[in-house]
Amino acid sequence: MKKVAFICVHNSCRSQIAEALGKHLASDVFESYSAGSEIKNQINLDAVRLMKNLYGIDMEKTQQPKLINEIPQVDMLISMGCNVGCPFVGKEFDDNWQLDDPTGKDDQEFIKVIHEIEEKILKLKEELTK
Predict the structure, then answer these.
(1) How far apart are CA 29 and CA 25, in angstroms?
(2) For position 56, what pLDDT does the model report?
(3) What is the rounded distance in angstroms from the CA atom of residue 57 to the CA atom of residue 67?
(4) Catalytic residue selected from 5, 8, 29, 47
(5) Which one of the listed residues 86, 89, 111, 128 is annotated catalytic?
(6) Residue 13 among the catalytic residues
(7) Which end of the chain is more exposed for a tag (fewer CB within 10 A), N or C?
(8) What's the average pLDDT block by block, 10 residues per block, for the chain (130 residues)?
(9) Angle CA 86–67–129, to nearest 5
(10) What is the three-class DSSP state of 66?
(11) Quick check: pTM over 0.85?
């Protein structure tokens, strides 16, 4: 089974959402990890709240912020979007999802990004099953 890592600078919001949705929607096709080049001390609380409300996923119980060197060697590296800052991971990314960071924005912006991540996870799942 392929291992996919979702990477952003702080590993506190978009990459954590992608890890959670990857595990929730595609664990039969690939293993999901998230990490950052720097980390915050906790996952974004708005992301935690909305993922719990929308999917019943409690990211605080199943995940924590991690540095890139704390995850296993992966087959694919996906950047969440370098509009905030692009993490250096020592090699090229396999894809850049170019997602806006919803941190500090209202719930509608968060939900929009969460649904974009869900669509991209499902598309990746489909591509990896071909």
Answers:
(1) 9
(2) 97
(3) 22
(4) 8
(5) 86
(6) no
(7) C
(8) 92 96 98 90 95 96 92 92 63 85 95 98 95
(9) 75
(10) coil
(11) yes
